[in-house]
Amino acid sequence: MVKYCGYTVRNEWMYQRGVDLGFPRPVTAEEKSDMILLISRDLMTETGVSRCTKLRHVKTAKGTGFWCIAFASNDTLSERLPTTAPSEEKYKALKEVLQKKGPPRWYKAS
């Protein structure tokens, strides 16, 4: 089973960030998908992690689905991500924007 180490983000957080940046609130499934891709790219670029992360869908231990900005994976061949969590200097800016506490955590792929 593939696992990812990163920070989780809810769909609604991404939609609201898009609205805060001046985009209209997405209504259709296509608009929602486009917004998630656009905002995740913007977020990863703004925080300087775009070259060392990937956006993946994960589940928590309770089965709740989230988007994960992943820094590492246990599937290095297909993911091309490290197998270990990054140093704090790599994730600090993202952590602050997302208002997370602590280092990135490991989640199962959904």
Can you walk through the features of this model?
There is one protein chain. The chain is of the alpha+beta class and 110 residues long. It has one domain (3-109). Helices cover 39% and strands 25% of the residues. The protein has four helices and four strands. The radius of gyration is 14 Å and the shape is globular. The chain starts with a strand and ends with a strand. The model has no long low-confidence stretch (mean pLDDT 95).
Structure keywords:
110 residues; alpha+beta; four-stranded antiparallel β-barrel
Residue-averaged pLDDT, rounded? Answer: 95
What is the total tally of β strands? 4
The total count of helices amounts to 4
- Return Rg in Å: 14 Å
Order of helices and strands, N to C? Answer: EHHEEHHE
> How many angstroms does the end-to-end distance come to?
10 Å
Tell me the domain tally: 1
How is this fold's topology laid out?
Elements: E1 3-9, H1 11-20, H2 29-46, E2 54-59, E3 65-73, H3 76-79, H4 88-98, E4 105-109
Helix pairs in contact: 1-2
Quick structural summary:
The chain is α+β, with helices and mostly antiparallel strands and 110 residues long. It has helices spanning 11-20, 29-46, 76-79, 88-98; strands at residues 3-9, 54-59, 65-73, 105-109.
